[in-house]
Amino acid sequence: MNKVLTLLLTVAVIAAVGYLFWSTSGSFTPAQEQEVATTTQQVISVRAESLRETAATYTIDAEYPQFGVAVIDEQIKTIVSEAVEDFKKNVAESPPSPVDVKYELTSIFDPPHIGEDIISVRLVISTYMGGAHPMAYASGLNFNRMTGKILSLSDALLLINLPLSDVAAESLRQMRSRHGGSLFEDGLVATPENYNTFIVDDTTVTFTFQLYQIAAYAAGFQEVSFPRKK
Length: 230
Known about the structure:
This protein is an alpha+beta fold.
């Protein structure tokens, strides 16, 4: 009888040890669950924020993107706010606008790219200060998704694995084909100022050339794209 009890006790101990081993090796511990939760990438979406103002001599109707990421949203908001302040200063220093025509600032943005590594959007701010037409300026706003740091031209060149001289040479080739003798070639010289405006998606880096930079106003913004290597 004692032998039977001893045998049953031994079996019970072995079963308990086996269950303990299985439960710790075959499922997540609380620490493992926490690690998985913290490495899940934040879901990001875009919404349009508006800044509107009307005065006796001007109107402002500015729309700009916000992504729900504080460090990125604050940088974009600052860019728009500074443009608005510059516009108001110019209005204050300008003669009265033509009869029934107010000075005007507007802004719009293209559908953004929200990638695993980069958030990118093109913002166009346009001002009318009298004359035949408004003047628009495009800004490429590109951010490291994890840190919120804005990307520089050097970062863009790393993404396509090309030096600026090669980008400039290919841009000149394409723009000569497109515009011929009406091309303003100085706007394509390999300087950071000429290539600082760009946007990024999963497959390409696209450089934008401003109005009047390489062609007449009527030609609009011009672009050259390069495939991403990274």
